[in-house]
Design a protein that fits this description.
About 50% of the residues lie in helices and about 10% in strands. By secondary structure, the chain is an alpha/beta fold. The chain folds into two domains: about 150 residues, no CATH class; about 130 residues, Orthogonal Bundle (Arc Repressor Mutant, subunit A), CATH 1.10.10.60. The strands form two sheets. A six-stranded mixed β-sheet has the order 3-2-4-5-6-8, covered by helices on one side. Strands 1-7 form a two-stranded antiparallel sheet.
Length: about 300
């Protein structure tokens, strides 16, 4: 177990090679979001410093930067309304109970966490990033991600959805989003990434297990869809930054319509602004604030994902 001293600032940074936690002074370093950094994460200790200043820093973080929240020892729901609402708006990767010191090993374990439901967390992330589609489209994408555990081809995907290949492709195309095969392969590559980051498994073993002919085929597809190599994905933890790489490639190739692209290329701030500006008398629309307060008072033994609180 590797421990870091209790932080003097509310924010800290994790980045490859993940040998230590880097404290951040938000009052000094607040600025416009910058290009994503592969495998970078922010740790926000809610019981330290001025949460409003820290929130401003968090909302300006580069797209794809994972956020880990560490809860304070206890909170009063009534007094912490705006704090909890702001937390809901930031879409954390995971939420940890209070710790007097940061445990580097535990933080890295959280970054390696396999999503409880990849289809839900992926769609929630894209919505938070600015993807605005109707409910039917959300269900199409989620179903594609779900089926990717055992389906490898668009023909099999269309049969599972009781549609012809042409009808399935038309539903994606008319909504201005990438073709079904790209969503299918993205989900498969995310599962590859989680396996690569979780241990020392050989690429060839992972490739065979997940339906690729060999490691070269897997590597080539990853490079084609995201511009990344398996060695980089193994070295840099987390999955949000991989989605950002995929988004960048898809937008460059015209995979998203001109209507959807502007929101996806902007920092995800609209949701944050609406949450932070909610009237004091109005309760949060999501159940996250209430659940987080309970978790702060009665800490759990394991990290919780954002979707555990209905956040995202």
């Amino acid at each position: 177990m590797v421990l870091s001293r209790a932080p003097r600032t509310p924010l800290a940074q994790l980045r490859p090679p993940y040998d230590r936690v880097h404290p951040i002074e938000p009052a000094i370093q607040i600025g416009p979001s910058v290009a994503r950094s592969e495998g970078e994460a922010l740790v926000w200790c809610l019981g330290v410093g001025d949460w409003r200043t820290a929130h401003q820093f968090v909302r300006h973080r580069a797209a794809g930067t994972s956020l880990i929240l560490v809860l304070p020892p206890a909170v009063d729901l009534q007094d912490a309304h705006f704090l909890l609402t702001a937390v809901e708006s930031c879409r954390p990767h995971s939420i940890l109970p209070h710790h007097p010191e940061l445990d580097l090993d535990e933080l890295l374990s959280v970054l390696r966490r396999t999503p409880t439901d990849l289809s839900v967390e992926l769609m929630d992330y894209l919505i938070w990033r600015g993807l605005r589609v109707d409910n039917e489209t959300k269900q199409l994408v989620r179903r594609t991600i779900e089926l990717s555990t055992h389906i490898r081809t668009v023909s099999a995907l269309s049969r599972a959805m009781y549609l012809s290949r042409r009808a399935l492709g038309r539903r994606f195309m008319t909504r201005g989003i990438p073709v079904p095969s790209h969503w299918l392969h993205l989900a498969r590559l995310l599962r590859v990434a989680l396996r690569l980051q979780d241990g020392e498994e050989k690429l060839m073993t992972i490739a065979y297990d997940l339906g690729y002919s060999d490691g070269f085929a897997l590597s080539n597809q990853m490079r084609r869809l995201t511009g990344l190599r398996p060695s980089a994905v193994r070295r840099a933890l987390g999955w949000e930054w991989i989605i950002e790489a995929w988004l960048t490639h898809e937008m460059a190739a015209g995979g998203f319509s001109s209507r959807l692209q502007p929101r996806l290329t902007s920092p995800p701030r609209n949701l944050m602004d609406s949450a932070i500006n909610r009237e004091p008398g109005r309760p949060a629309t999501a159940s996250g604030a209430e659940a987080m307060a309970v978790a702060a008072i009665r800490p759990s033994e394991s990290p919780l994902s954002a979707s555990s609180f209905g956040v995202g």
